[in-house]
Structure formats: C-alpha cells, structure tokens
Design a protein that fits this description.
Distance between the termini: 36 Å
Number of strands: 2
Number of domains: 1
Largest sheet: 2 strands, antiparallel
Radius of gyration: 15 Å
Strand content: 5-15%
Order of helices and strands: HEEH
Strand order of the largest sheet: 1-2
Length: about 55
C-alpha cells in the first residue's frame, strides 16, 4: 500500500490524531497536506443527486 500515491495523506485524513506513522512523526505539514487531500478527494456524506438532475 505504501507505493500507492497519496496513501499517507489518505490515512492521516481519516485518522487525524496519529502522532507517528510509518516509523516517523507526523508533522504539521503532513496534517495540512492530509486536510487538503481530504477536501479534494472525499465527497461530503448526505449529498445525493436527484433523479431529475440527470
């Protein structure tokens, strides 16, 4: 999995309280990158398209 692009950002976006990951500390930059990744890659829950939108 570690070879997948963005996996670190994904994991940190769903587990934001991790202090250490992959044998290294989680930095402020890691958290910032994860937050940006989450905003651009995860759709908010509850957002459904109506059939008339198609």
């Amino acid at each position: 999995i570690e070879e997948e692009k963005g996996y670190r950002s994904y994991v940190l976006s769903v587990l934001p309280h991790l202090k250490s990951f992959d044998f290294s500390g989680v930095t402020k930059q890691d958290r910032s990158t994860a937050a940006i990744w989450r905003r651009t890659n995860v759709k908010p829950k509850g957002v459904k398209k109506k059939l008339d939108d198609y």
